Amino acid sequence: MGNGIQAIHPFVMFFYYMCLGFFAMFFNHPIFLLAGCLALIAVNLSHDGGQAMKQWAPLMVTMTALIIVINPLINSRGMHVWFDFFGKQVTFEAMLYGVVTAMSLLMILLLFVSLNSVLNGNKLLYIFARILPRTAFLIMMSIRFVPLLKRRLTEIQDVQRLKGMTMTQGTLSERAKSGMSMLQVLLSWSLEEAVETADSMKARGYGSGTRRPYIPYRMTKSDRRWLSYLLVAFVMCGTGGFMGYGKIVIYPELGLLHLSSLDWFVFACGMAVALFPLFVEGREQLKWNYSI
Amino acid sequence: MELFNLNHVSFSFPNTDQHVLKDISLSVNEGEFLVMGGASGSGKTTLLKLLKRELTPTGKLEGEIFYKGKSISEWEERQMVKQVGYVFQDPDNQIIMDEVMQEIVFGLENLGYSTFEMRKRVAEMVHFFGVEDLLNAKPSELSGGQKQLLNLLSVLLMKPRVLLLDEPTSQLDPVAAKELVLMLERLNKETGMTIVLVEHRLEELYAVADRIVLMESGEVRYEGDSRQVIGELYADRATQFFPYLPTFARLYMEFEQKPIIAAIPLTVKECKQWIGREERETMPVEAQSNQLKEQWILEMNDVFFQYQKKAPFVLKRFTLRIPKGQFFAMVGGNGSGKTTALRASLGSIKPQRGKVRLNGQDMKKMKDSEWLGKIAYLPQNPRTYFVQQTIEEEMQNVGERLKLSNVTERMHHLLEAFGISHLRTRHPYDCSGGEVQKAALACILLGEPEMLFIDEPTKGMDPVSKQHLGELLYSLQQSGLTIFMVTHDIGFAASYAERCAMMFDGEIAADGTPDELFKGNYFYTTAINRATRETKQPEVLTYEEAVATWAVRESI
């Protein structure tokens, strides 16, 4: 566990990310999406100072730029023509559509970067354990094998290299052949060892009756409060969305970009959802600094 | 009260006439600490598995096994799972889940306990073990000793009445092994838990055990109180079991004119009392630096290595020189970087700074093919060596790779010399641990290497096989092979190596002959050395040394 957002019940967090995913894919007003992206950037900054985001930044920037540039070049639907580009009409609508799509995708990417650092490993698995217990258990066991197999493979490589079998030198077919032999050794060795793992499971009563999973997370009062907060904000924002607020018509002709007061209300609800981690962290900070 | 009662139990695996266990009658009493010993293949593990119903191997079982007066097969399944706990040999294989917390509650989940009950038990046991800080770790990040403690913990959470352990310390370094034994002793004394332990390294267990059972080829040969068993062994002159006895007891039985069974020393303290204390001025050892311009076969100068950019250095200013023809052993605790040093000297990892020279040539600048066959490596798990279906095919393959002439002749010679000719058509996985090791050694010696690297060769070996291996390595060295061994078995290093070094915190802390290095240490030494320090007899490291140097030798 941890502080702030890490201490929130995984289910609440999962609900938050689902809401945001809906937000990113449902609304297409540029202001909404821009605000959503900025909110998520702020959320990511609050996790780790943007460390994880930095790794993804090059990909995100290139992707956004490419979509914005390419869409108007290959798509000439729309009424407001900007200029001619080698005989193709570049329209304002296509341009805007590119921007909206790019922001929507960017928002989802940012969402996953955040999800990755908050709902890491077991928390995510815990959510799925409720829905698919067997699959979750299988995934858990498989994850356990990754470092084990990696270590064994290094060991095999060390040994086989001195026998002249290597994957770093020689022709392609030689390398492939040595690689296969090493994998074969890894497989037979691991199978042999896995017999003991199976024994260990049996010895501890696996399959002796119904299994009751251990529940490591408890829904606290504040978790419940946050969940209802998210629920209320999301329902209002969703209803607004279905009634057509926060959306614009792009094709065939661009509609009004003007936002009505009801639009602004839906927008506020959406932001209330998107900025939820910041509220949690902020509240924690305030408590730390100003409580007696 | 009798917990287990074995009534004329015999067992054989399917499709063989050979009995693994022959007519065994044995009982285990409530609250007892029972230790079982014997050579590999003597049926200890099979016997232990028969006591745990879920692990009973397929085969023909004769006779009956009773648990609390009722036949073991009549008990309800979940009851047996709960009441009999089992800890395996390999620390890694028995871990199932990817998180420590998930792992320790695994058994409880299977038995359908409520989360409340699980929390309660975890809170209590984790505190008793003092491993709170490990709860959120990944099992792959733990050391071997921590893993084995975790395995013990997850079994204990099911609150078993009896705990069965199959060589739980064989994969651990001496310090971690001692810790585990201490934990078992504490459990036995404080909670009255019944413990049945199968083990090779019996030395310190004689003092802990209530009863010792020694097995040989499927039969119980000796059974009883530690001292009584030792007495009987000497009365019968059962020399095949002598390596399983604590060194103190052996010395006592050999040197005492009229040995009394009740006075056999089992601990360092008792041994010191028997020999008699004598204050002696301890001289700080001056290692003789052999600055002779010898021909170095392996030179490592100021080697630095880290696995990741921001990770701490595993090797720091690591310097090592091994002259031609030396048997060099490096000891050190888990995580001191021994294995990393070995891998660096093999060229498996490239150090960030510093040079590794083999025969005067820089290893970084050499191609793999250049040292092919010149250096040989016997890994911790020799099974990783074999790619082919049989040992013979493997050797042929090695011969082809190294383009050797007269492969068949050399092969016969080596197999003969190692006494494994009968295994040549076997698959390496069908041989015992010691046999595979010998087979792998035979394969790598086929190319007549100049230098042999060995990683932890004595892991999980019984004392007799250990002795065979030591003698084999010694004779190889005598015939001119340079050996670089990494081990945490100090007794083994002291008996066979010519020069030893102790590794600590990424560099070699001390380097000298076994005598210079190990005599006078508290932990990094053999038990017999601790017992003979400041006594009337000369300080020794091994039993053989004592026999050779001690003054009064009256045979019994």
Automatic annotation (TrEMBL), chain A:
Localization (cell): Membrane
Alphabetical keyword list: Membrane, Transmembrane, Transmembrane helix
Domain of life: Bacteria
Organism: Sporosarcina ureae
Entry's transmembrane regions: 12-43, 55-74, 94-115, 127-146, 226-250, 262-280
This protein's record includes keyword Acetylation: no
InterPro entries: ABC/ECF_trnsptr_transmembrane
Membrane topology: Multi-pass membrane protein
Keyword field contains Transmembrane: yes
Name of the molecule in the record: ABC transporter permease
Taxonomic lineage from the root: Bacteria, Bacillati, Bacillota, Bacilli, Bacillales
UniProtKB/TrEMBL annotation, chain B:
Subcellular location: Cell membrane
Keywords: ATP-binding, Cell membrane, Membrane, Nucleotide-binding, Translocase, Transport
Family matches, as Pfam families: ABC_tran
Protein topology in the membrane: Peripheral membrane protein
UniProt key word Transport: yes
InterPro entries tied to this protein: AAA+_ATPase, ABC_transporter-like_ATP-bd, ABC_transporter-like_CS, ABC_transpr_CbiO/EcfA_su, ECF_ABC_transporter_ATP-bd, P-loop_NTPase
Keyword Nucleus (UniProt): no
CDD domains referenced in this protein's UniProt entry, alphabetically: ABC_cobalt_CbiO_domain1 (cd03225)
Residue ranges of coiled coil: none
ABC transporter domain location: 4-242, 298-530
Protein family per UniProt: Belongs to the ABC transporter superfamily.
Name assigned to this protein: ABC transporter domain-containing protein
Record organism: Sporosarcina ureae
Species lineage: Bacteria, Bacillati, Bacillota, Bacilli, Bacillales
